[in-house]
Amino acid sequence: MSQQEKIMEEFRSVFNKLVWLNRGEMEEALKGHKSSEVHCIEYIGKHVDPNVTRLAEAFYMTRGAISKITKKLLDKGLIESYQSSENKKEIYFRLTPEGRNVFEIHENLHRSFRERDDVVFEKVSAEQYASMSRFLDAYNRHLDAEIDKQGIMLQDRPNPE
Amino acid sequence: MSQQEKIMEEFRSVFNKLVWLNRGEMEEALKGHKSSEVHCIEYIGKHVDPNVTRLAEAFYMTRGAISKITKKLLDKGLIESYQSSENKKEIYFRLTPEGRNVFEIHENLHRSFRERDDVVFEKVSAEQYASMSRFLDAYNRHLDAEIDKQGIMLQDRPNPE
DNA sequence: CTCATTTTGTTTCCTTGTCAACAAAAATTA
DNA sequence: TAATTTTTGTTGACAAGGAAACAAAATGAG
Hints:
Helices cover 72% and strands 5% of the residues of chain A. By secondary structure, chain A is mainly alpha-helical. Chains A and B meet through helix 1, helix 6 and helix 7 of A and helix 1, helix 6 and helix 7 of B.
């Protein structure tokens, strides 16, 4: 196995474990709310004028899926929607006080995850941080370019009918 | 945002893009086979005496889900099952020639993904590799310990009935 | 050995997300 | 301006995966 494959394998392993572990704790702490709902609450709490389309792009999900989640959050009274006077098409969301409460719990939990993993990160030197960040930045830019390429290829496909 | 959070954020971003991009190319190249099916084929092709339980553990999925996927692969004739004479409970899988074919296509695609991303990795020095690997190893071990802890806590919960 | 417990695989029901079709509004083009 | 195209959000049909209940086999305790 190449260095590249070895790194990516470890990378994947860490990621999967994190998702699994954090989701479990999250759903235990925020019983009654699914992790996808909490993700939406987090995004809505941190951005201005978020709508279905922005949420979908942020989470690599379809607008349909997000539409259903926000509908549930509206029903639960965790978010509310509003519109601008200039645009009667887009529908934005904001947190209600109850939603803000869930948001805070989520933030605290995130802090506790961070603290849980501190032992690992406190051994990382400034140079190591910089080095990893350089690598991840480069990889991110590379993948953005590849996704763009893919997007163009899909768009240019002639319509068969 | 702390160094830790910044790194993890970039980490997450790279990972999501990789999954999205590779899955798309994979499903285009292997039309008719879902990516989860191909993952199972890959695992079965690379391990000895794989069964439903091993696959579930490897992919952090339930045995029920894997059972359904292997059923589909059996129906498609991509894998076949066999049992040992000492154990009449466990059911193992192996690839058929057709499954082996899908396996090879998948491997080639993986190679092409690796080559696609080579530009990023060829800029990584040996020391950078070592440094990242140390970090990922430590993180992996830490998470394993935390998952263990979680498992014990779930097991030790007194049964209410 | 015998009985209880654990492991393994399957099935049913339910939830979640995708896909495709759609309607309304906005943006673009002629 | 008028007509076309794109964007936005929603819905219904469908597929994938999880939870739980189950049966059969293996393991363990006595």
